[in-house]
Amino acid sequence: MVERLGVAVVGGGFMGGVHAEVLTADPRVDLRWVVDRDERVGTDLATRFGARVTTTLDEALADDTVRFVVVATPAATHEPIAAQVIAAGRNVLVEKPLVLSTGHARQLAAAAHERGVVLAHGGNFVYAPKFVRAHELAADREALGTVHSVRVAFRTSGPDTDWFRSKATAGGGALTDLGWHAVELCRWMLGKPAIRAVTACTRQLSAAGDVEDQGVVLIEFADGAIGQCDVSWACPGGEQLTVEVIGTEGLVTADLWQGMGVEAYTNTKFGAVWEPNQGWLRPEWEWIRNSGYVHQDRQVVDAVLDGRPMTHTPDDAVAVVETLEAAYRSAADGRKVEMNA
Q1: Domains, the chain, with CATH or none
Q2: PANTHER family, alphabetically (predicted)?
Q3: Is 340 annotated in some ligand binding site?
Q4: Which of 131, 197, 225, 268 could lock onto 220 through a cystine, CB 3.0 to 4.6 A?
Q5: pLDDT tens by residue, 29-42
Q6: Is residue 189 marked as binding?
Q7: Cβ atoms within 10 Å, residue 244
């Protein structure tokens, strides 16, 4: 019998639970540890999946069977945790944002390369089946002609966890949270060209916290294409995530949450439906799979066990971090930021 891949999940909250659910469904994986400073939170998740619980990463890393660690903690903690995991010679998947600075992103990438371990970053939507199909269509240049623009709109009604609204723990607001996905989708849909310049503006609407609720980023790519990223935590009515790629001869659009094939109506509320939850609804189904988490985590496991190359690499994470850093500088200074300048 082949020994299964021992995994530890650091962070027993919502995203830790998503990865635990996905990974335990893979017969090649053995979820051995849940690490959380709050033992009660860690115990709740560990009990669900038959894992052990600890409040220290050191204890999980002392288990030689743990070869892969998932980091699903507040953004400001990602760099030190990932650095410790890599230094211990273990493979790691860090939820988005990978880290909060380009320098730290490059350091982690270099350390992972030196240690010969996998460094993966959370970017589930570039693995989402609907967007993968849109990407395939957008790559057909005979059909689209010269692709000159791509637009990603990602809007929600805001996070329900306090740490997201604190710069000290999250690093930023909607740009850090949703902008990671928007920038990555923009680059990917165009074939990952170099970025020449970034212009952005942000706005804080909520009195809670000290970070932005809205952001718009304009990306000028080296091949002449323009990317637009429109992100917001101030959108009533539920999550929206759309991608549009436009060329001289055609276009491709994809809406992650529309066209799901299920409709419902209620004058009150359904017990197990996310917002919006009144009137006519299009309830999600298999949202973890449709959002790309299954495909993302499976590819990381393939990379760890079989050495298969990943479609989205640490270099991509560095590019996203660098773009978001430029966007924040642009918004603060009110000017265009030239990349590599």
Answers
A1: 5-125 (3.40.50.720), 127-293+320-338 (3.30.360.10)
A2: BCDNA.GH03377
A3: no
A4: 197
A5: 999 999 999 999 99
A6: no
A7: 18
